[in-house]
Amino acid sequence: MEQTTHRSAAVRDGLGVGLAVGLSGLAFGAAAVTAGLSVPQACVLSLLTFTGASQFALTGAVGAGGDLVAATLGALLLGGRNTLYGLRLADLLRVRGPRRLVAAHGVIDETTAVSLAQPTPEAARTGFATTFASLYVTWNLTTLAGAYGTSFLGDPDMLGLDVVGPAAFLAILWPRLAKSAELRLLAGAGAVIALCATPFLPPGVPVLLSAAAVLVVMAR
Amino acid sequence: MTLWWAIAALCAGCYALKLAGLAAPQRVLEHPVVSRFAELVPVALLAALIAVQMFTEEGGLRFDPARTAGLGAAVVALLLRAPFLVVLAVAAVITALVRIFTG
């Protein structure tokens, strides 16, 4: 009985997070088209990359006229945190073979947060699957809607859509900044490094360079 | 490199990174340097992305009052614990309004 309660609570958590966060695919679709991507390019990113921060990072760099190699590396470096989520989840999900290949695509911020919040491994698996499915469907439908809708607008900047990418990053970062002064310092240092480097380096490279701030914090 | 190649590389790379975590031996995470690096890198990168997208344009520093007002509004929304999508909407609306009124 208790088992069932845990699992239905996990379904509720998963659907709530999946549907709410999935809606921000609208913002991604809009930001991608604003940056100069086509509607199919925006949709392929959401279908196959399926990790919001990396998607926003690539489109942001493209919009700034950045070097594509640096832009891709920066986006990949952001995707590196999913590797660590995978390490955390492997023991909990215990998936093998083809199921592991499918589950891997769903290893992102939101599914990890929901899974780790569940009281039992069964509930964690249910939470993972529910969040993954609802977020994947919503994120891709809203990406299409946002990209398609924006492609009809004359000047997306007039609607303030150029601020959506930075605001999304800030919202992702916020819980971490709120809980640690060290992380606030690191964020400030990363921002200053990137701004100072911008006039001297090709677009995309300053963002990569900001990772140097991590080495300073770790060496302390 | 065309944009499609960048997209293909990012899709393949991001999937490989996710799979690597699920398939790796568990003791990797227990290494304190790995877990600490993992916690810190996204913070520096996200902050740098915010700074660059807010305050640079075409390889130079540039202050855009409307965009700055929008991000300020996002901070207020976050302080009020607004949901993710509300934060983004508030930022865009304020930016657009400032642009309309400042021409």
TrEMBL record, chain A:
Keyword Flavoprotein appears in the UniProt entry: no
Keyword list, A-Z: Cell membrane, Membrane, Transmembrane, Transmembrane helix, Transport
Superkingdom assignment: Bacteria
InterPro entries registered for this protein in UniProt: Brnchd-chn_aa_trnsp_permease
Membrane topology: Multi-pass membrane protein
Species: Nonomuraea deserti
Residues passing through the membrane, by range: 15-36, 56-78, 185-218
Family: Belongs to the AzlC family.
Major location (coarse): membrane
Pfam families: AzlC (PF03591)
One Gene Ontology biological process: L-valine transmembrane transport
Lineage: Bacteria, Bacillati, Actinomycetota, Actinomycetes, Streptosporangiales
Name of this protein: Branched-chain amino acid ABC transporter permease
Cellular compartment(s): Cell membrane
GO cellular component, one term: plasma membrane
Automatic annotation (TrEMBL), chain B:
UniProt cross-references to InterPro entries, sorted A to Z: Brnchd-chn_aa_trnsp_AzlD
Domain of life: Bacteria
Transmembrane segments: 40-56, 68-101
Pfam family, one: AzlD
Keyword terms, alphabetized: Membrane, Transmembrane, Transmembrane helix
Protein name: AzlD domain-containing protein
Organism: Nonomuraea deserti
Lineage, broadest ranks: Bacteria, Bacillati, Actinomycetota, Actinomycetes, Streptosporangiales
